[in-house]
Amino acid sequence: MSRVDGQSIISVGIDIGTSTTKFIVSHLKYAKVSSHFSLPRYEIVERKIVYESPMYSTPLKEKRDEIDLKTLAGWLEEQYKKAGVNVSEVKSGAVIITGETATKKNAESILHYLAEKSGDFVVAIAGASLEALLAGKGSGAFLRSKEVKGTVANIDIGGGTANVALFRRGKVLGTITYHVGGRLIELDQNGEITFISSSIQPWLHSKNYQLQVKKKIGFREIQQIVQEMCKDMLNSLTGQKPIRLDDSLIHSTSFQVIPPIDEVMISGGIGQLLEKEAPKTIYDTAVYGDIGPLLAHEVVKAIENCSLKIIKATQTSRATVIGAGMQSTEISGATIHVTASRLPIRNLPIMVIELNDEQIKSGDYVYEQIEQAMIEWKQYFQGEQEIPFAIHIRGISYCSYAALKEVAKVLFSLYEKYFPRNPVLVVICENDIAKALGQLLVLQSKNKVDIISIDQVVVEQGDYIDIGETINQSMVPVVIKTLAFMKN
Amino acid sequence: MNQADIQQIVEKVMMELQTRISQQSEDKIDKDEKSFHYTAVDWLTHVPNPKFPEGIDELRKVTPARIGVWRTGTRPLTKTILKLQLDHAAAVDAVSGEVLDSLLKEFNLFTVETCYENKEVYLKRPDKGRVLTEEAVKTIQERCVKKPQVQIVVSDGLSASAIEANLRDIYPALLDSLEVNGLTQGTPFFVKGGRVACMDHIGEILQPEVLVLLIGERPGLVSANSMSAYMCYRPRKGTVESERTVISNIHSGGTHPVEAGAYIGTVLRKMIDQKASGVRLEL
């Protein structure tokens, strides 16, 4: 059992971005939200930041194609000390590598290394889609969407990409990422171009802009390019231009058609630059050696031209790290069954088994349905059969104990047949039946396999889930990594 | 064609028509009597053209209360009124009904009675439902294992239909949860005309370590089939209400009976480990 500090857990967030790295420590307070007369149910009722690091230039090795792990780890160690937190006290959180840094040679190994070293249950997160989602949760757009009627878009613009997430009534509609960022073109204060990112080159070509490193550029000219970039993005966001995967400005998208947007928030480094005055000369523009300040103000103009309402974000440059540190963790239902020695368990891909009440009631097709899902899974993960995964059973809204027993029996016998070497069976239910299903599986398995059965967690095929150690002997923290809408 | 012919034809047609009509109405009555069901399809109503449909849906989803059902003038729709009357009738039926013997046999539960006499007295004199008859005491003493770790008791309480609706799901789930938690039970039985505090009398007779009583709840307009599971560590004469732990609202639309059953074992385990129940028990 985790040591619980009062009624809260310590969570950290680490965002290794294109230009800066950020770190936060937060306290997630959980409380019983059910009455004394019902089954227990807990929720995270308060998420509070207790430490924010200063912005730190992401350390890169000389060739700029690799992250300098040693320097980064040293800085983080120092930050933990400053925050007054021991790694062993950290019970949740996430490390995310965002924007262009994700393409660095050693990004993935660093991500996992840091996740392991940062606390007991700190997970590794990557991908533009997740980045957009976390930024939208950190900026306040997600919360805003619960309070208003329409659709709220969060545009998080950093150095390399603009990650857009759309929320409506507290639900995520999807994400889309554009090659729009402050550091895609770098220049000095004399107007000489010093760097052009390879990710923006195709778009520049398509628009016939002939930019070259070491050549000078005038203010009007660079302003026109940035304006065009923003116009293109907004035309796409407002549906005036259909989404095409070969669009050179689109990095990735979950949408085929973007639903109408009512309100927009701007976060990320660009969001913060909005507080400064708009640049009027090339000298003002290049104050950070890039097009950031210009981009910030042109984006706002482009949004206003589409008559979309802009809402001030509650967090700008720290939105993603705050999302990662504070919003990535959820807690499961409190009547569950777990084998404590197996936790934490990380990076489980989700296998979805779709059943319905009718099938469960009659017992028809349950066997076929489960078997088919398992056969497909085996084909998909050929040669990696030792990899543990989680089975998500969907479609049971209300069922009798006899019917549930039948499901457990079939599920276990097929699991044993197809995955005989897996020592753990992880099951995730939608509704509050995990304890009943868990005990049925325990009785079926006769202790041959460890059972973890949790509920009230929403997952989709293609997601990954991390499950932490039990809190208060009754529930587990989970982090769901939604990759479902990654269509690169 | 003469007058008589026409007359004949008209008479024939009229007769034919009459038989057809009477057949039709007979068919109709027959069909309605056999298949009259007032189901969700009939009573579900919605606000036409709401300004904020998602908002109404969200509110309706979090409560079983009759909101967003629309109106006619200042009054509810007939459908809403009928549904309310249906629910009220079900509640009345639940109180006056009896648990079928066949169900109790299915789970090997023998029946004993409290001093309730009859339903009318039962409703007026709650105290009588808390004490078992002399005969019941004798039967229990003869048939039950003394000082068991867990004693399971089922009672109709204020809703016989709660037992009918939920026992098949909650009871086997409860037995399995005892096994998973390494607990053993004594001899379970059914108490007719029981009130919650009949636990105390049974506690005196059998002295179990913990007792769990599955009892029908006072029916309401949301559900007439709601059941409670009352649990108590060493129930005895003088047990106060704060010493009981309860999971209530167990029915298909509330706390899922299979999950409640599975959770009871965990609660009982904690009661035995902590030697406490009710407000002193840490869950």
Secondary structure elements and their pairing?
The complex is a heterodimer of chains A (488) and B (283).
Chain A: E1 8-16, E2 20-32, E3 42-52, E4 56-57, H1 69-83, E5 90-97, H2 107-117, E6 122-126, H3 128-139, H4 141-147, E7 151-157, E8 162-168, E9 171-178, E10 185-187, E11 193-196, H5 201-206, H6 219-237, E12 250-253, E13 263-267, H7 268-273, H8 282-285, H9 292-305, E14 309-311, H10 319-327, E15 329-331, E16 345-354, H11 357-362, H12 366-380, E17 390-394, H13 401-418, E18 424-429, H14 434-445, E19 450-455, E20 464-467, E21 477-481
Parallel strand pairs in A: 1-5, 5-6, 7-13, 13-14, 16-17, 17-18, 18-19
Antiparallel strand pairs in A: 1-2, 2-3, 2-4, 7-8, 8-9, 9-12, 10-11, 15-21, 16-20, 20-21
Chain B: H1 3-35, H2 40-43, H3 53-61, E1 71-72, E2 75-76, H4 78-96, H5 101-106, E3 110-113, H6 119-124, H7 134-143, E4 150-155, H8 160-180, E5 189-192, H9 198-206, E6 210-216, E7 227-233, E8 244-250, H10 257-274
Binding site for adenosylcob(III)alamin (chain B): 196, 217
Catalytic activity (chain B): ethanolamine = acetaldehyde + NH4(+)
Function (chain B): Catalyzes the deamination of various vicinal amino-alcohols to oxo compounds. Allows this organism to utilize ethanolamine as the sole source of nitrogen and carbon in the presence of external vitamin B12.
Describe the protein in words.
Chain B: This is Ethanolamine ammonia-lyase small subunit. Chain B: It comes from Parageobacillus caldoxylosilyticus NBRC 107762. Chain B: Pathway: Amine and polyamine degradation; ethanolamine degradation. The complex is a heterodimer of chains A (488) and B (283). Chain A is of the alpha/beta class and 488 residues long. Helix content of chain A is 32%, strand content 26%. In chain A, the strands form 4 sheets. In chain A, strands 15-21-20-16-17-18-19 form a 7-stranded mixed beta sheet. Mean pLDDT of chain A is 88; it is low at 1-5 and 484-488. Chain B has 283 residues and is of the alpha/beta class. Chain B has 2 domains: 40-95, Ethanolamine ammonia-lyase light chain (EutC), N-terminal domain (DNA Binding (I), subunit A); 99-280, Ethanolamine ammonia-lyase light chain (EutC) (Rossmann fold). Helices cover 48% and strands 14% of the residues of chain B. Chain B contains 10 helices and 8 strands. Chain B is elongated and about 100 Å long. Chain B starts with a helix and ends in a 9-residue tail after the last helix. The mean pLDDT of chain B is 91.
